[in-house]
Each structure stands twice: as C-alpha cells, then as structure tokens.
C-alpha cells in the first residue's frame, strides 16, 4: 500500500519498514506489489463499482496524458467521475478514434453509462461517441475538464518517484492498481472538516484491513 499510494521508491519503503523492525529487501517490496497489488485493486474496484452503478446525474471527465517509455511517447487514457474517482485507465500507442473507442467501450461496459461525458477538443472523442450513439452526451469547454487535469497530478508524482516506466504492460498494470488505491484513500481533505476527514480515513483503513484479512 505504501509503495503504490505514496511517491516512494522501493528502497524508501525498505527503510520505513526497517524503522518498524521489519527487515526485508527492496526487491521483496517489488514482488509484493506485483503479486498482491492487482488482487487488492480488483477487490476495491469491484466493491466501488457495485456501490456506484446506476448513480443518477453521473458526470464523467475523459482525458489522455502523455507517458514516456524508453524515449517513446504513449497515451494513458483516464475516466474520472464528478467526485474525482478514477474509473478507468487504458494505455495505447495512439490517440486516434480506434484507441478512444476501445477505451470508452471498456469504461462503459464496466461502469454503465453517465448522463454527461466532458472531454477536451480532441476529435477522436466525438468520432468514438458517434459510433457508440452517445454523441449527445459530450460536453466541452475551456475549463470544463479541469477535474481530469488535476486528477493526473498524483500519478505524475508517482511516475517521477519510479523514474518512469520501461514497458507498456507494466504501465497499464501500475496505472490500474494506483487508481484503485488512490480512490480508496482519497478522502477529499480540502472539502470536509477535520472530524469528517478522520472518520473517512478510519473507515478506509478498516476496509483495507478487511481486504488483507
């Protein structure tokens, strides 16, 4: 959890655990997150999808970000809802209509259809929505997609701590795991009072302990 959630290196986590009397190698941390991270992320995602499916007045923000892999630029497509939850992450080599269509079909199949989908001016979104028959749900605007832009920041911090990625497969895997862990621990601290934040934090920790059990 510490390695995925916080912008820490493998050796940072090794040192933190050493202070708590746990003597392990940093490669053990790598093996742990590779083996158990997707399992926990899948459980978190399943519970949240079941709770949120069928929400009324659901609004999505769709955006793509550049990620460099061995000097080559790829695209990480992300769907964010109106509460800042990362719904879907999908990596492609292009950002054309075909890539947008695969990404949107994956998101719609898993989460259902929202009332509004806010995007930037990329024409691939409009073409993909036309094929899906939901072009009437598209919304664009100069600042309308700021929620998606701000949602990229935690992943960017994590990317810098990991000194970038080496393969598209590892990027896809980590992006999906990171999204679930971020959703689980994100308590919107800046929007609630201290007592409410502490209650949300305790509930998230209790749920996490149940998952590990």
Write out key terms for the chains shown.
213 residues, alpha/beta, Nucleotidyltransferase, domain 5, 5 strands, globular
List the helices and strands and how they pair.
Layout: H1 2-5, H2 10-19, H3 26-52, E1 59-69, E2 72-81, E3 86-92, H4 97-111, E4 116-119, H5 123-132, E5 138-140, H6 146-161, H7 168-185, H8 194-212
Parallel strand pairs: 1-4, 4-5
Antiparallel strand pairs: 1-2, 2-3
Helix pairs in contact: 2-3, 3-7, 4-5
Detailed description of the structure:
This protein has 213 residues and is an alpha/beta fold. It has one domain (2-212): 2-Layer Sandwich (Nucleotidyltransferase, domain 5), CATH 3.30.420. It is 56% helix and 16% strand. The protein contains 8 helices and 5 strands, in the order αααβββαβαβααα. Strands 3-2-1-4-5 form a 5-stranded mixed β-sheet, with helices on both faces. β4, α5 (123-132) and β5 form a beta-alpha-beta unit. α2 crosses α3 and α3 packs across α7. The longest helix is centred in the first third of the chain and has 27 residues, at 26-52. It is globular, with a radius of gyration of 18 Å. The model has no long low-confidence stretch (mean pLDDT 89).
So what's the overall shape?
Answer: globular
Helical residues, percent: 55-70%
What's the number of extended β-strand segments?
Answer: 5
Q: Percent of residues in beta strands?
A: 15-25%
Element string (H = helix, E = strand): HHHEEEHEHEHHH
- Tally of domains: 1
Biggest β-sheet strands, sense, barrel: 5 strands, mixed
Mean pLDDT: 89
**Using only CA atoms, what is the Rg?**
18 Å
**Biggest β-sheet: strands ordered side by side in the sheet:** 3-2-1-4-5
CATH architecture: 2-Layer Sandwich
Number of helical stretches of at least 4 residues: 8
Low-confidence segments: none
CATH homologous superfamily title: Ribonuclease H-like superfamily/Ribonuclease H
């Amino acid at each position: 959890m510490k390695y995925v959630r916080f912008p820490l290196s493998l050796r940072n986590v090794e040192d933190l655990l050493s202070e708590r009397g746990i003597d392990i190698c940093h490669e053990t941390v790598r093996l742990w997150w590779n083996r158990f991270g997707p399992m926990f992320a899948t459980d978190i995602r399943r519970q949240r999808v079941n709770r949120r499916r069928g929400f009324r007045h659901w609004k999505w923000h769709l955006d793509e970000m550049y990620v460099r892999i061995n000097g080559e630029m790829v695209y990480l497509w992300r769907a964010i809802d109106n509460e800042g939850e990362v719904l879907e992450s999908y990596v492609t080599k292009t950002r054309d209509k075909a890539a947008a269509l695969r990404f949107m079909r994956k998101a719609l199949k898993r989460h259902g259809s929202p009332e509004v989908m806010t995007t930037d001016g990329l024409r691939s979104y409009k073409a993909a929505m036309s094929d899906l028959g939901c072009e009437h749900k598209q919304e664009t605007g100069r600042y309308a997609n700021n929620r998606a832009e701000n949602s990229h920041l935690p992943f960017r911090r994590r990317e810098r701590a990991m000194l970038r990625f080496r393969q598209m497969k590892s990027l896809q895997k980590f992006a999906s795991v990171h999204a679930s862990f971020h959703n689980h621990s994100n308590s919107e601290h800046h929007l609630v009072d201290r007592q409410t934040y502490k209650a949300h934090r305790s509930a998230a920790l209790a749920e996490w302990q149940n998952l590990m059990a």
